[in-house]
Structures are given as structure tokens and as C-alpha cells.
Amino acid sequence: MKLTENTTFKVLLTIFLLISNTIYSQNSYFEEWYSADKEHLPQNSVKSITPDKYGFVWMTTENGLARFDGQNFKNFNNTTMELQSNRFLYLFGNIKKDALYAFTDERADFVSITKRKVNKIKKNNFNKNVLDYLDKRFYLNHQLHTKIHFLGCRIEDTNENYYLIGAKNISFYSSKHKLIKKVAHNYLPTNDYFLIHNELVCLSNSKIYSFFNSNFQTQNTLNLPSNSKTIYNHLTQQYFLCSANQIAMISKSKNKLFLTTLVKLKNDHNLISCVYYDTKNKKLFLGTQNKGLAILTLNKFTVLTNPTSTNNNYYAITALTKTEFITAKGEIYNKDGLVKDLKLNQNGNTYAITLDQQKNIWIQNDNILIRFHKATNYTTSNTYDFKTEIKTIFCDSKNKIWVGFRSTKQTKCGVATIDANKKKATPEWKFFIKDAVSFFAETKEQTILMIGKKRILFYKPNSKNVQTVSLGKNEARSIFICKDNKIWICTYNNGFSLLKDKQLIKLPFDTNQFLNSAHCINEDKKGHFWISTNRGLIEVAKSSLLQYIVAKKPVYYHHYDTEDGFLTNEFNGGCQPSTCQLENGYIIFPSLNGLVVFHPEKVNKIIPIRDFFIHEGETENETIYFNDTVYLSRKNTRVKLKIDFPYYGNGNNIHFESKLMLGENSKWISTSGEKKTISFTNLPPGDHILFIRKIGGFSSNYQTKKIVLSVPYKYYEKTWFKFIIILFIIGCILIISRLRYKYIQRKNEELEQIIDERTNALIKTVEALKITKNNLSQEILQQKKLIGTISHDIKSPLRFLAITAKHLDEKVSKTENETLKDNAKIMHESANQLFRFVENLVDYSKIFMEHHNINQLQKEPIEVVIYEKMDLFENIAVANGIQILYKNETAHPLLIDKKVIGIIIHNLLDNAIKNTKNGEIHISVKLEGKKLYVGVTDTGNGISEEIKNYYLNLLKNNETDKLSIQNYGIGLHMVLELVKLLNGDLKINTKKNEGTTMEIILDYI
User: Fold this and answer.
1) Other CB atoms within 10 A of residue 395 CB
2) Helical axes 719-789 vs 818-850, angle rounded to 10°
3) For residues 431 and 1, which has the higher predicted lDDT (pLDDT)?
4) Per-residue burial over 440-463, b = 16 or more CB atoms within 10 Å of its CB, e = otherwise
5) What are phi and psi of 13, to 5 degrees?
6) Residue 392 maps to a domain
7) 683, 709 contact by CB (below 8 A)
8) 36 near 292, Cβ under 8 Å?
9) Residue 509 CB neighbours (<10 A)
10) CB atoms closer than 10 angstroms to residue 18
11) Torsion of CA 83, 88, 94, 96, to 10 degrees
12) Is 932 helix (H, G, I), strand (E, B) or coil?
């Protein structure tokens, strides 16, 4: 068959994809390059490389020293110190004792590296034999000389003991130059001498090696690769063999050497000049002659792909045997790769797969559920067509297959179950579960959990009762039931939560919020959760999650991404199962590009547990160094503190927080970014405490350090200055107080003089008042005498006149002379009125003249006073056709002031009789609470509004200038005065031609 151009292109593209995918999947490391071109290094020729005591990696270049902390470089050359040359050769010294050294070309400058600092030192008397060995090792590594011999060299170990190589023997000396041991040995120029674990090894040109401790008697052969370059790192005592396609390292165990291949190289690294292997973090540092620094991170994870397929996007997977698992495509894998492709599901979706107890494979393909039979090695199958799209499937502990469906408008949601124990089982529908179920799980109590739309359903097979838990705004992705039967819910938009007592307890996000889309959880044997996301894989200790729930303790999340060997950071979820674990301990997660397989105990975790340091800062572009206290000047308004922390793992796993104590509301602030700096501007004067902390690993404990920021006070802000100012202010206050005192004293003297003058005037006034008082007393006495005279000299004749007029009226009434009768009657009435008026006036005057307190007057029953007044006015009332009635509404006798009430009732009766003809007058008395009500009501003509308003206004205003006695009479005026004295009130109700009611209201005690 002849291929068309398009067909040929497709074939070639397929072959290319297969080859490239196969090659890429075999990469066993992640490679990063750092160079001067990217402003990392001061120069691209890296001469030597070594770690220091604190974990920082140092390297020499032809333009200075460089220090690497895992994220950033710090360079040292003649721009930071006084150097004659920047061409550094190699590093030497002692890592354990924090004493590293380096020198520039022709030994022009010597520097020491201690406590993470570089300092220029004077040329020390370094032992010539030691430097001779180091020079030869350095040049051997760089292959500038082909003939290297170590005769007479001195090789020091980490304890400063040393080996001295002679022509016939090798001697071992202590650090104090005392001979410890001497071994006979014939030196050969072709031999290589180096230390591993502080023991001298002799490696011949014929690949035979022997040890000093065995007196070079035991000889073994080491199978070294041909055409390989030897590079020895004398500071770390690591011996490497580098070829075009691999890097290997010699290791020692039980007096034997072994060659271990570290990496298979995908590029030519022949220009390697120095090597350091971080055995703990599985990182290989390669210094090159002209390309800078390469860091190879050995993969912790394996990514499996199908070499015969171009589609390595995986979803549902499940364990098939103890060491194998199967995908929803029907591909069987073990931890090393594809075992067999059953091709069970080539074109359908791959979102669900499950195995029943007979190891039959159940796979969904849109509307159809397929069961492949184990008995026929999965060559035969039977199907179930549900006529609606299947979302997920699950096999419970009773070997029952649960089927969940996608929600559609045309079909009714529900859940179907199939008994897998039967070869031809009919699906059983459970329509009482109305939700579209997307994920199933089963607890140890055999309760089935189902993720529905916005809720989680709890269903016990023996009961049709379905309990629900609302998910709120969460979109659940999967359910994970851990070993202790706790239920965890992963969501697509809100991380993950613990489901406890039918309540969702939200767990915190990681720093970068990669957990926002949490697909699923798997638990390893140590109780760590592995959570797949769209941004990589996250590991967390379950114990720290539970501690957060109980006590809000911090949670450490460890992040893995493509630097750790993934082909992509985007894992897949929304399927069932989204992860699986084999009995041999391996865990598998599906991703957009391959299946990520790993053993949790074999994953080398680079955890940020090392100590961090804060001893360097910048102010106005000036570098400052400090220990625990930073002394700042007031000229520098901005300070930047640098956190030194060697960490060679994923930068997302570093999380620093800082808090400056400036008040009660100080809060922890995240210090993010690769630079790891903390900046402050315009700090107030004083000593301020700065706390810096980071989470140190899965224990979720904080490592905290304290720094004091000391900002000096200006002279006017210092205590002594304030004290002087206070003394000055106190002195001023004392002087002003003294002057004020003198002023007040002078004023007091003037006031005393004025007071004396006024006192004299007051004495005179008092004397005048005394005279006035005596005069008033005399006047009062005269008034009393006048009242007495009136009472005796006027009242008595008036009483006699009234009596005489009465008799005269009675005598004349028998005559027939009408004129005489009328005159006698008028004379009788006038005499009585005049007598009553004088008697009232005398009693009224006596009240004010004889008593200081009106409430101390003689008290009698009110009935006596009222009946007395009724008798007094009886004749006049009869004469006018008036009937006087009295009503007492109180339940017990009332005691009143006789004269006061008598005058009041007298005048009220008098006023009522004057305004009434042929009618009735009602006197009423009642007691309500502590108020006494005395009322007089007549049926006369009624008083005018003008008179009513006059009396009421007079009662309120008490303005004597408005009195109109000549118009209205004196009677009611006396009543008003007495009411005011008693703090009482007067109520007047009147209606023309119907009568008037006057009511007096008094306090009754």
C-alpha cells in the first residue's frame, strides 16, 4: 500500500513521540544550571566545591568565591573585600571545625571561611607538604598535568591527623606530630592515594586497591569504567569517576570499595572539573570549566508510561495483585513498568474501575458497565446497558457493585447495585437516593458513603434511611477513610476537610494554596497522607492535622513537583479510584503525563530542618553584621535583614514568618520569596524585639529566633534630657507659683482691707436692721393690739349690733309696714355680713401674725368646721331659697387645721351663696392617696371666664400688682393666699346659668 504524504507524516510523528516519550521517561534526575550569564555566579569556571559546617555550598571561580544556599548565590571578590586577585584556585581546610580556606592565583591572597563569612587573612604557614598534595589533586582533577606523583606529600584527615607518604613506607601521625603507625609500602608514581572515611586508600593503575589499616596486604580489584576521568573531593573525601555517559562514586564498606553509579548522563559532561555529592539530599553538584554549575537532583519518584501508546493521560487505577495494578484502559503495571496491556477499554472514558472478590474487572464505558472475567484471563465479558451515562463504580465488602450516574435532565437520578456473586445478576435500583452520585466509599461498619450534589449521603444497606451532610459551597472530589476509620473529604475548590460527627472541619491550606484543588488522599504505613493536586503532590503527617483540629497547631505540608521526577505537576482526579497502594508498599497516582509510582519509605525527603541564621543586613546600601542585636542609626530610615538558610529542596517547602513587637496587635507576617529578607522603615527609637520562625518539618514545631533592633534616641529623646526638662519645668512652676503666691498675698491684703471696710459697713447695716427689727416688732405688736382692739372693740359691738338687728327684724316682721320690714331685714343682713367679714379678716390676720408654721395650727375633725359654717350661713341660705348639702366620701375621720379650713370653706360658701338663688350648694370631702379634696359646688349663675382666669392666673403667677380686690372682693383672695401657703391647688369649673365648682386640693399627712 502506498502511503500518502499525510499518512507518512503521522507515522513519523508517532515514532518520534514514542521514542521521545521512552527516552524522557528514563531520565533519572532533574538538571538545573547556574552560570554567570544568568547572574548567578561571578564567573563560569568553577574550580572546586564543598559544603561548610552549616550546610552552605562554597565554590571557587576565576572571579571570586560563591556561596549557595539552595536558592540564591552570594559572591565574594574584590568588590566586597580588598584582594589583589579574584582568580581563586581551590578550597581546603576542615569542614567539621568550621575552618575553610582558599587562596588566589600565585597565593597572592589568603581568605578564611568561618561562620558563613569570608575574611582576608595574612599568609599563614600552611604546611608545604599539605599544599603540595592539594595542588596535585587540584591539577589532577582539572587534567592540566598528566604526570602526578604524591611522594613526600602529607594527607590530613578531618581530625588533623595525617599520613606522610615515603618511598618505602607510609607513616601515620597524630595532630601533635606523634608517630602512631608506620607501614612498609613501595611507592609507585602511578598509584593514587586518597582518604575515604579518614582511612588512606592506595589505588593502583591496574585498578587494584588496598588500605593502610590492613598494612596494604589485602588487595582487591575494583571494576572501574574505562575512559573515565577521576575527580577527588578531598574535603568531603568523595572519589568520582566521570565519563561521557555516567558519573559513578567509590564508596567504602567493611574494608571493601564499591563503585556506585549515581546518574546516567543525557548530555556530555566531559568539562567537569569538580564534584560534590550531597548524600542526604541526593543532589550532585558538578562544577565545569566553562559552563558554570550544574545541580542534578536524583529522582525520588518513578513515572511509568506505555511505550506503545501516545496517550499517557491516566485516570482510574486499582491494585490487581500484591505487586501489580491495572488502569481503566486495561494496562497492567508493576513498580518498574508495563507488564501487559489487556486492551480492555481502548476508546471509552477511563474514570472508573473496580475489582470484585473474584478478581473480575469492572470498567464503565459511557452508558455500559462491562465485567471482564478472571476465569478466562479477561478474554470474555458481559455487559449492562443502563441507557444513561455512568459516573463511577465501586465494590463493597459484600461483593456488591455500586453504580453512580451523571445527572441529566432526561433521566431520573438514582443508584444501581449488582450482586457480583451472581454470574447474571439483574441491577437493583435505589431511587430513594435522588442525587447523582460521583464517588462511593465504605466504612468499617459497612455504611456506604456517597458524594452527591452539594452533600454527602450515609446509607446503611439494611435500612432505606439516608442521612445527609451538607457540603455548602464545596465541590467534593473523593472520600478517604483512613486506617483509624476517620473520614476525609477532598474538594475541588476548598482543600480538604475532616468529617466528624456529621460536621465538616476545614483543614488549613498550604502556603501557596496548592491544596485548593485536592484530588485524593493515600496513607502510608507511618501515618503520612499523600495528597494529589493540580500543582504537584503534597505530603503531610496525619498527627499534625489532628493537632491542628484540637489545638490549632501549625501544619507542615511537604511539596513535590517536576524537580522530583514528575513529567507534569498536574495530577488527575474526579475518578474512582484516584490512587491505589500495593501490598509491597508502593503508592500510585495518575497524572496528565504518566503514572507516578513511589515507595514512601524510599522517597528521600529534603525537609527544612536545618538551623537558619540572621546575622547580616543592609542599611542604605551598606552591609552590616550583627549577632543578636542590630544597632541602627537615625540616618538609615530603612533596614533589610537577610535570612541565611541552606535548603536544597523545593522552595515551596520553606515558610518563614516574622513579628516585630511594636504593640499588642503585632501579628505574624509571612516572609516569602527566594531572597528571604525582612524590611523595616522608619522604626521609632528604642529597643524592638523581632521574632523570626519557620516550621521545621513534619513535627510541625516552630524554630524561632529573636533579634533586637536598637534605634538610638536623639539627645532630646533621651531620659536624662527629659529629666532636665522636667526639672526645668518644675523650677518654672515653682517660680511662677512663688510669684503667684506673692500676687495672691498682696491681693488678699487688699481684700482684707476691703472686707474690713465692708464688715464695718455690714455691722452698721446689722445695727440698722436690728433697729428696723425692733421697729417691726413694735409695729407687729401694734398690729396685734389693733387686731385685739378690733376683735374686742369692734367685733363685740358688731355682734351686739347683729343680734339687735335680728331682734328688730323679728319684731318688725309682725307689723304691717312693709318699708319698715324691708329696712329691718336689710339692717339685719348687713350687720351679719359686716360681722362675718370682720371675723374672717381677724382670723386671717391672726394666722399670719401668731404662727410661723401654718401646719402647727390646732386640728379638729373636718365635719365640725363644715357644720359650723353651714349653721353660720343657714339663715341666709334659707332666705335665698338655698339648700346646703354635705357629703364626706372618706372612710375615716379627717383632722384638719380649723382656722385655715374654716376660712377657706367660709369664703367658698359665701361666694357660692352670693351667686345662687333658689338652688343647692354641695360641700364634698374626699381623700385619695395623700391628697385631700374639698369642693363647693353651687347651681347658681356661674362666674364669668374673666373672673375664673383672673383667679387661676393669680394662683400661678403670684403677682400682687395685678390684685383687683375692689373689683372681685377679698374673700377668694384670702383663699388663694392660704392655698399657696399650704402648697395646694385650686380647680374652678363653671358654666353659665348652671353653676360653679371650686375644689381645693391639699396635702394630707
Assistant:
1) 20
2) 150
3) 431
4) bbbbeeebbbbbbeebbbbbeeee
5) -65, -40
6) no
7) yes
8) yes
9) 16
10) 16
11) 90
12) strand
Grid coordinates in use for 234? 578531598
The DSSP H or E segment spanning 808 is: helix 795-812
Identify the residue with better confidence: 251 or 834. 251
pLDDT in tens, 809-822: 677 766 767 777 66
**Same domain, residue pair 286 and 315:** no
Of 199-203, 732-736, 783-787, 922-926, give the lowest mean pLDDT range.
Answer: 783-787
Query: How many domains are there within the chain?
Result: 5
Q: Where are the beta strands (DSSP E) in 683-835?
A: 686-695, 702-711
What percent of the chain has a predicted confidence (pLDDT) above 90?
A: 45
- Dump strand ranges (E) for 870-994: 883-888, 895-897, 920-928, 931-938, 985-991
Burial call 986-1004: b when 16+ CB within 10 Å, e when fewer:
bebebeeeebbbbbbbbee
* 741 domain residue, yes or no: yes
> Residue 908 belongs to a domain with what CATH number?
3.30.565.10
- Taking only the tens place, the pLDDT of each residue in 434-457 is 778 999 999 998 999 999 888 899
634 and 586 assigned to the same domain? no
Range list of β-strands (E), 105-255: 110-114, 117-121, 154-156, 162-165, 169-173, 179-184, 192-196, 199-203, 208-211, 220-221, 229-233, 238-242, 246-253
CA distances from 709 to 188, 617, 643, 706 (A): 62, 11, 15, 10
Q: What is the pTM of this model?
A: 0.70
Bridge partners, 532 (sequence order): 520, 537
521 contacts 537 by C-beta, under 8 angstroms? no
Furthest-apart CA pair in the chain: how many Å? 191
Residues 309 and 259 in one domain: no
User: What does DSSP assign to residue 855?
Assistant: G
At 348, the amino acid letter reads: G
Evaluate whether residue 773 is within a structural domain. Answer: yes
Q: Using an 8 Å Cβ cutoff, are 798 and 834 in contact?
A: yes
**Residue 95 near residue 84 (C-beta atoms within 8 A):** no
Q: Give the integer Cα–Cα distance in Å for 268 and 609.
A: 35
Last residue of a domain, one of 549, 565, 598: 598
Amino acid, single-letter form, for residue 580: C
Quick one: 175 and 147 in the same domain?
yes
Q: How far from chain centre, in Å, is Cα 169? A: 71
Contact predicate 15/7, CB 8 Å: no
Residue 926 C-alpha cell reads as 374626699
| Assigned domain for 181 exists | yes
The residues facing 920 across adjacent strands are: 883
- Expressed as residue numbers, the domain containing 980 is 852-1003
- CATH number for the domain harbouring residue 206: 2.120.10
